[in-house]
Design a protein that fits this description.
This protein is an alpha+beta fold. It has one domain: Ribosomal Protein S5, domain 2, CATH 3.30.230. The strands form two sheets. It has a five-stranded antiparallel sheet with strand order 1-5-4-3-2. A hairpin with a 2-residue loop joins strand 2 and strand 3. Helix 3 packs parallel to helix 4.
Length: 194
Amino acid sequence: MEELNLLPKELEKEVLNSRNKMKAFKNIQRVKPGGLELTDRLVGVQRVVKVTKGGRTFGFSAIVVVGDEKGVAGHGMGKSKEVSEAITKGIEEAKKNLVRLPIVNHTIPHEEDGRFGGAYVFLRPASHGTGVIAGGAMRAVLESVGIHDVLAKSKGSSNPHNVVKATFLALMKMRDAHMVSKNRGISMDKIFNG
């Protein structure tokens, strides 16, 4: 079986570009939004300008993260000439991209890094009471997932679009002990005690 952490860098970039390519991660479970109490967090709104001979045309793009704070989250981007409409489109897109991510005692199972475009993020589990040590776009993602204790660092580009995607990529590469035992077909006792 292909090891999840040995994905080539080119595949990592392609995985988040299409919902169909998310199947490259064997441990990721897609989730339907029905029946979930989802909260949405606006990560950022960017204004774009198109200059034509008739003048300038303004538009907006909004990146949004939705989650139930119990291990399910998704991200989406909406574009429109109005800010509110762009945010609404982003929320609808995020609800189509919901995935279940592993959480162990309100933190992550192990260290992991993620890279998307120029953004590079690093996540490390933390003890209870540490809080979410992360900034900007990463904080919105981690809080939407329901992680309360984590140490995170964003290196490289601070573009919120790429930071959100890199953070999701890092979270999607994680596996908890139950997933490992199921994939390998061995008991939990054998994983911890050999």
